[in-house]
């Protein structure tokens, strides 16, 4: 029974599927990831006219918070997630903001982004990169769709993720920060910097990785 539960959790934290999988993932993500998301958005530096992409948006909490920064400007938020149940959950959460075209949600994979070159001013993702099927391809795709001098912000609760890995819940993820950083640099990103931070309310530790899309 214990191995079945670990397998169920491992599969559904990577790609929530089915009623029980999506219910578990949505509630688990909201409870565990919201504090990190709340601490991430201020680091992204979103301006009212920015076009912004969130990768792996889950139930849409991050997009809902980021929306406040573009609501009064010409900016727009895009989200891409591999899971259909997460698309549905985020659609329900964001409602009228999708109708008025301030937010657009897309089901897809970060290794094959359905966006034009040089499209985004900011890209961010939280507790996400370790589930990507190919870090090198994903990094190249993100670099491609970002504007010159735009910034990507990656955040991760490293200690919590490593604990989940030890307990068998990260069977389908690769939380190797050094590997991720190496792939980002190979893709062409500059000024790649890793910082250790603590959350404002709980003082829980997390890491943030900054990367700039320097282009000719």
TrEMBL record:
Keywords: Transferase. Pfam families: Methyltransf_11. Residues 53-153 form the Methyltransferase type domain. One of its GO terms (cellular component) is endoplasmic reticulum. Transmembrane segments: none annotated. CDD domains: AdoMet_MTases. GO terms for molecular function: sterol 24-C-methyltransferase activity. Gene3D superfamilies: Vaccinia Virus protein VP39. The keyword Transferase applies. InterPro entries: Erg6_SMT_methyltransf, Methyltransf_11, SAM-dependent_MTases_sf. GO terms for biological process: sterol biosynthetic process. Belongs to the class I-like SAM-binding methyltransferase superfamily. Erg6/SMT family. This is Methyltransferase type 11 domain-containing protein.
């Amino acid at each position: 029974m214990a191995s079945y539960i670990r397998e169920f959790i491992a599969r559904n934290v990577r790609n929530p599927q089915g009623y029980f999988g999506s219910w578990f993932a949505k509630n688990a993500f909201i409870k565990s990831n919201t504090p990190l998301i709340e601490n991430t958005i201020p680091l992204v530096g979103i301006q009212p006219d920015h076009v912004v992409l969130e990768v792996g948006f889950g139930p849409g909490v991050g997009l809902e918070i980021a929306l406040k920064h573009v609501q009064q400007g010409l900016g727009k938020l895009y989200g891409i997630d591999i899971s259909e149940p997460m698309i549905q959950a985020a659609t329900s959460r964001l409602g009228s903001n999708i109708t008025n075209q301030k937010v657009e949600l897309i089901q897809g994979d970060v290794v094959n982004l359905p966006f034009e070159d040089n499209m985004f001013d900011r890209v961010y993702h939280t507790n996400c990169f370790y589930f990507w099927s190919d870090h090198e391809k994903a990094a190249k795709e993100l670099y491609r769709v970002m504007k010159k001098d735009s910034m990507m912000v990656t955040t991760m609760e490293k200690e919590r993720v490593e604990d989940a890995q030890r307990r068998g819940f990260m069977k389908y993820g690769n939380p190797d920060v050094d590997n991720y950083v190496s792939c980002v640099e190979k893709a062409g990103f500059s000024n790649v910097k890793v910082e250790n931070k603590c959350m404002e309310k709980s003082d829980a530790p997390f890491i943030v990785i900054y990367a700039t899309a320097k282009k000719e």
